[in-house]
Amino acid sequence: MSAAPPAVILVRPQLGQNIGSCARAMLNFGLTDLRLVAPRDGWPNVDAGPSASGADSVLADARVFDTLQEAVADLHYIYATTVRGRELTRPVVTPHRAAAEMRERDAPSGLLFGPERSGLLTTDLVVAHAILTVPVNPAFGSLNLAQAVLLAAYEWYQAGATTEASVLANYDAPAAHGELEGLIEAFDAELTAAGYFAPPETVAAKRMTLRNLLTRPAYSGKEVRTLRGMVTAFTGRRRSRQT
């Protein structure tokens, strides 16, 4: 199986030089799909070119998105690179393991990186299926953005196309995140109508848990459509009783 290289998504990147360095790291190991979510200084950024050191094609083809959900809508499996993530229930993998898994899937994947200063927020992590953490010296675990991208890209490249796929019967691939967002919105709308999101101080936590429950299993497209059909069936039955 020859999986497509993963997309690299930089969430709220701050410095053009760092974006350029990430592009350089990507192209060194065959990654070309760079996506920028709300870059602080806008895009294009004149400071990105020099630090890209020739990876101009990656910068020229970079796509900019207003929201993270839009940036990952077509991706089927997403790894969030962070040392945090304790608020969520997610598998935690190394770059080596993530690369092997991505090679096994015949569906587009993404590598998610947060802002240089603060990293990804919990509200960013909820779109991910797994947490990618680099095993480093516990006494000094400081990596800059480009270094993190380089490590993940290197492991992808090293994994090659020879990894044998582990097959799950009757399962194609995780659904594109855009489909999953539709399912989450459907649940949210019906739970809101049913009065579930109360009292007010619990709403944010309940919505986070809902996203966690629906994102973590990596449902296939068929499973997502089945769940949406269930929501429609339940709500249609309830409404018919009310009329």
Care to give the gist of this entry?
The chain is of the alpha/beta class. The protein has helices at 16-28, 48-52, 56-60, 68-71, 95-104, 122-125, 145-159, 177-193, 203-215, 221-242, and strands at residues 7-11, 34-37, 63-65, 77-81, 92-93, 109-113, 130-132. Helix content is 44%, strand content 11%.
Describe the secondary-structure layout.
Blueprint: E1 7-11, H1 16-28, E2 34-37, H2 48-52, H3 56-60, E3 63-65, H4 68-71, E4 77-81, E5 92-93, H5 95-104, E6 109-113, H6 122-125, E7 130-132, H7 145-159, H8 177-193, H9 203-215, H10 221-242
Helix pairs in contact: 1-7, 5-7, 8-9, 8-10
Low-confidence stretches: none
Strands in their spatial order, largest beta sheet: 3-2-1-6-4-7-5
CA-atom Rg in angstroms = 19 Å
In total, the number of strands is 7
